[in-house]
Each structure stands twice: as structure tokens, then as C-alpha cells.
# Entry
Amino acid sequence: MKIVHTIKDLQAELSVLKAQGKKVGLVPTMGALHAGHASLVKRSVSENDVTVVSIFVNPTQFNDKNDLEKYPRTVEADCQLLEECKATFAFVPSVEEMYPEPDTRKFSYAPLDTVMEGAFRPGHFNGVCQIVSKLFDAVTPDRAYFGEKDFQQLAIIREMVRQMKYNLEIVGCPIVREADGLALSSRNKRLSAQERENALNISRTLFESRNFAASHTVSETQKMVEEAISNAPGLRLEYFEIVDGNTLQKIADWKDTSYAVGCITVFCGEVRLIDNIKYEL
# Structure
């Protein structure tokens, strides 16, 4: 695996490989890599000739400066994991490389980006679209891989690709969980042992709600989740919404969609965790 720091060097490497007809997969990450990221990289390696993994903590998608500063950075360990996963390139640019001047572009994909994360983190998805579009332009991949844990992000990136007419396939990959059910997240590194124990109530509640939903209404299921999280030690619910998986709009009845997804955001201590569950009724 080769580590590259500039767009120019990356494009020089890729142009030779693309001239040989090789297919390129891109896995955008913010580093602090874990088994969830590894699953994306392995999928890309299995489906493409060349896999580029970007490691870049993107400042424009953080609306909380404190969160940006505390975001874990483990580039050496990340590159070791990517080597083991047989990635071709680790693209590790500086902020100056990705933003030689301020990016003033505005991305708007209402109503996808105005609900849930969009409502609680204003500007977040604009920053996501800025960096992901920059990576698409730099790499021009055939496929790009994103985890379904960031469910809303995935829907917005698909819409961005459609509207900007990028010639690439977006591949959504399933959530990877610890054996005890906790969704893998780079932010888990910030949890104390007790907080991690408390955080298990998030996935437990979602799994229980899937069984509960089989014999209860949408509003009853919503209430069950909200009450369970509110009663769990050390957790503070920011939101839980049951939405149509395509439009991200709230549903009132299970019959409203064949693709119902429960999306949740919870503070565990100071750490903000997201998760989601599909309801198969």
C-alpha cells in the first residue's frame, strides 16, 4: 500500500492504473478506523482493481469546535489496518490540501437534509457534501463505499450523486456491531468503561423495538424507544424518528412504507452516538 498526501500525486498514480482499464473504488473516512471501516475496504478490494481510502478529519462538517478537536486521530494504526485489508492507496491530505481556499459552495437536498441530523447539526451535511464531492473529483472512482450506520448521510450522498450527475455507483454497506450489539463508531474510543456499558442500551432498545413493532403502532413503538432510553442510566436522547428509508420523512403508519427505519441519536456522557434499525413487518 502506498501513502499519498496530495491530490496531484494521487491523480498521477491513478491515471496510470486507469489507462490500464483498472476499476477504482473509494472509501472516504475520517480515520480512527475500526472493523466497520475494514468491512468497507474489504468490500471495495473484492469489487475493484484499485482501492483508495481517504483519511481526513473534515473541519467543515463539524458544527461543534470542541467535537472537532476531540475527534480521535490514529493515522499510523489506520494505515496498518489498511495495509492488512489490502488497500492500494491511503490518501492522507492536510486541511490546506483539501481547502486551499474556503469552500463557499452550498448544497441543499431538502427535505433529506433538513430533518434529524440536519435539524440538530446545521451545516453538517453541507460540509459532508463539500468534502465528498472534492474526493469524487480528485479520485473519479467507479464505486464509492459508505456505511449504513450514517443512514441519512448515505441518502444525501446518493441524491448529490444523482443531481450532480457523477458517473459512479454508491455502495451502502451494513452496520458492523460488536458481539454485544454496540454499533462500531470511531467515537466509541471516547467512552469510559461505564459509558460503554450504558451505551449498550441503545442497540438493545432498537432490537427490542423491532420485536415490539410487530404488534404495535408506529407511535407506540416511538414512545417505547423514547421511554427506554430516557430511563437508561447515563443516556440522553436527542431524537428518535421512524421514517421512510428513501425520503427520510416520518411515517404515521407501518402501511405508509415498505422501508421503515428507526434512526436514533443519543448522548452517552459527552459522546454523541448514532444508530438505526430497519423494521421488517
